[in-house]
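Form 12-C: Joint structure prediction
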Amino acid sequence: MEKPSIPKGTRDFGPAAMGKRQFIFNTIRSVYQKYGFQPLETPTMENLSVLTGKYGDEGDQLLFKILNSGDYLKDVDSAKLEARNSKAITSSISEKGLRYDLTVPFARYVVMNRGEITFPFKRYQIQPVWRADRPQKGRYREFYQCDADVVGTTSLLCEAEIVMMIREVMKGLGVTDFTIKINHRGVLKGIADTIEATGKETALYVAIDKLDKIGKEGVSKELSEAGFAPDKIELLFNILNTTGSNEEKRLALTALFKSESGQKGLSDLKTVFDLLEASGSNQSNLEFDISLARGLSYYTGCIFEVKVNNVAIGSVSGGGRYDNLTASFGDKENLSGVGISFGVDRLYDVLEELQLFPKEIQRSSKVLICFLDTESMRYGLKVLAALRAAGIASELYPDESKLKKQLDYANKKMISFTIVIGEEERKEGKLMLKNMDAGTQEKVSLEEIIKTLST
Amino acid sequence: MEKPSIPKGTRDFGPAAMGKRQFIFNTIRSVYQKYGFQPLETPTMENLSVLTGKYGDEGDQLLFKILNSGDYLKDVDSAKLEARNSKAITSSISEKGLRYDLTVPFARYVVMNRGEITFPFKRYQIQPVWRADRPQKGRYREFYQCDADVVGTTSLLCEAEIVMMIREVMKGLGVTDFTIKINHRGVLKGIADTIEATGKETALYVAIDKLDKIGKEGVSKELSEAGFAPDKIELLFNILNTTGSNEEKRLALTALFKSESGQKGLSDLKTVFDLLEASGSNQSNLEFDISLARGLSYYTGCIFEVKVNNVAIGSVSGGGRYDNLTASFGDKENLSGVGISFGVDRLYDVLEELQLFPKEIQRSSKVLICFLDTESMRYGLKVLAALRAAGIASELYPDESKLKKQLDYANKKMISFTIVIGEEERKEGKLMLKNMDAGTQEKVSLEEIIKTLST
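Section 2 - Result
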């Protein structure tokens, strides 16, 4: 029989990886909750009518589709079947697909439950998503997203709170050297207006978005090919090269921009900076990055991206404000929202590289009780019950094995303490507590052990 | 545009339901961890070669299958395609399926990672599974399982620990009136041997398993049809009617059984009872139920089932010992294990019916800061920062709205406290803290508020 395997681009998470992942999830979840966000979970499968057309043609190709149950070929059009037209047949044999992101299901939920939702609605959602992308290093077909969004208000307080949340998450994870990049779609529009790119905004934003990756030369080339005149490209780079503090950049652009969109973007950013100041936050790790564009055309206001400095890993978080969350479902009400998403896999790699995972999260039980004979095992059961009653994660080795094997088990599972029980210990009523990390041991009472391990 | 919907048999879990579900998950997870179980997560999609044939023919039909990406019809056999033979074509156009339970993926994980696993391996797994079953009340197409298994030891300490874990989970959930039913496959074999049912064991166990549902008459009829003689059926019911304490039943059967299997089952149960006693547990809610059979033929030792008394809901938990977890993957090593699984949806219904969900889990933030003017909003930002720095989940209403609207928001989100800030409060430096449940309010300092809300 062939050795079993898992699908390409998917992963098992064993105990060691799970401990680390839970640390990341718990940190993000507790910050979200502290900021008043409430949990939502949507089904893994969505109707394809909900998913299709929401992510562009490329996205539609990357949806995992579920084969209908039963005799799924029964009503398929004969001509299409004979032509082996996979693409044309899909909608006849598949009605459901796997969640591609958390935003579309969230929008779908809001449309379906509008009457019961209290707005502004602050929801967070931590669930996996699936994309039939070609797997490669750091890109998986199943991965978690950790989203938080507020919808139903245009208040810029939400943007300020997103900056604060990012800081708290980073602090909770132990990451100290990071940059929160902030920009505004209005600022980008202001640039477009200034260099007279009306009608070619998308090409401009897409090119700017690549500045990090392909450099000034690459962007120039791309814009040239898109029909931008050399003097306009030069003007663009003059604007993008604006240096100074956030305030200095803002003032420089305020003097430059003639268009309303551009001025609105700058005044929104000023409000966000002011709100942060009013809440006692500084701007030390917040950078007004004029070249931050973020691909998704659906953002309409502030946009965010978070980079950990001195680590060769892309952004670990991103988000922004959008209008009309529910418009794609034909919803007429203007539901503006703003959201942020953390990439768990990238955060994992960052924490691993910077060795920031706390040691204790990789442990299982705090103590293993070992025994030398059957009677001592029974004695150990009482000790075990007392430890657990005190809330201490603990185990009794289940088999009558040599002590070495029992201690090996503790070592391999990274259990910090062992208690070894033999005839002597039973008679004395004192137990040998061994600190496996320090290699020290002492004979103490059960009460003392509980006191030591409870801290 | 049509209103969007979710697939039949799936559910959204909004904030209120999520709060309750997280309470159940957290309770189970913390007990599992206290008992030394470590987390595992496996991919949502498994190769169909891993899943198929593991759940019987019916199970295979209930697997959700993923349509291959790209031009999936390209290499499909023409004859089968023309014949519209859905069943025969499936394996050509689908390679992956959704996880059907947590046991098969666990076995697959053990086979793939045997070299790195420390045995006995205690793993827990809390993830959704999918079944293309006909949806009906209480039966969903996507639902969570919460499994804990120990593999790599035959020690009956594991069985005793499962009983203790069930008790701790129930206690953690606030359920006091419940029964843990325990039986042993050996006992069932002993009954089969006693009534001379050799070769017809499966029919016998399947019938016994239905005693709860179809009663004595129904079971008799079924056995009759399966070729059991009336005197044997009578003998069977005599055995099943054995009354008394666990110990009395055990002694009665010990005197009756001639077969080795039967005696082995009884002696295993004795050991489990003894270990529970040695650990200071009593048997008050543990019932040796001779008629407990549990459908799955793959159990080989002790079997468990948990019923909440006085609630018309089936079992909320079940499990047992099995041999050869990994045999279906051609693995030759004899990996015995024992496990338990909790049904979250049933526990949810039980806690709802018994009104056992703690009130505080349904809350979001602990306090909402309301404000009467722009300046007060800025003042509120500092208050907000101080509350959150103290770890208190809190929000500032994001929009300049009438106070009534702000308080409505607090009420709807079940936020217990509000702070209202106006000019007076800013000048005095004292804040009005309102207890929304009690309807009381008092003007206090921020420090006092933090003290009150931190408890």
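Section 3 - Comments
The CA atoms of residues 19 and 362 of chain A lie 5 Å apart. Chain A touches chain B through 108 residues (CB under 8 Å).
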